[in-house]
Structure formats: C-alpha cells, structure tokens
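Question: does this match?
>
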Amino acid sequence: MGILWRVATAVDAAGLRDLERAASRAGLAHVFGELPYPDDDVLARWALLLDDPEVVVEVVEDGLGLVALVAHDGATLRHLAVRPDHWGAGLGREAFARAEAAGARRLWVLEANGRARRLYESLGWRPSGTTQECPWRPYPTELEYAAP
C-alpha cells in the first residue's frame, strides 16, 4: 500500500509546528543549539500558510501524528520536513517530488543544513548564489536553490 498524502487544514497547525520542531531539533541542533524553539511564532506562521489560498500544505500521518509535510505555492517549495523516526524512508524525496510536480522551481535552505542540501543536490538542484538571513535566532544564512 502506498503512502497517503492529504491536504492539511487549520486543525493541523499544531501538528505541523510539532513536526517541524522535532525535525529541527534533531537535524539542526548544530545551528540552533540550546535556544528555545519559537513555538508561538512557528504556530502563527503555519496558521497564515494554511489560510493562504496560494499555498498548498500536504501531510502524511501515522498513529503518532504527522510524519511528513511539504508546503509549496506553485513556484517555491516553502517547507519540507520528515519526523526523525522516518528519516531514510524516502518521504523527503516523495515530498520534494510533489512540490516539483506542482511547479516549484526554487527554495530556501539553511546553509548549514547539510542533510537537506545533499537531498536537493542529488535531485539536480543547485545554489543560485543568492543568500538571505534566516528570521530565527541566531539568524543563520539561508541559500536559495533553483531547479535545473
């Protein structure tokens, strides 16, 4: 049986935040260290994204909650996360493929997020040369990636 993706709704906002927190703490501890996770700000961002008619947020869940998420707007992959206990199962690639199929041709990724960058580069995407500051403390650098 295949993986069943569904469109997220406002009811999923807290689950999206929790999944993003789990993935960030596991994969980006070297960037954010012991800083408190910005739960309220991230929850507010998810509420805005879920209310934006231009953004599609898709999720996969199991008995423990959300397992994977992908958010895209037809041009940009906005967010992609997989719960750490499912890393290596192919969900990141599948989420990425969903965003690409919907027209995503660019994304932003933390410069220090080697795991994500390896995925994007293995799929042919490359840094465009454009950078920006991440809005979360300690404000690390984000790189723009573009489709081949």
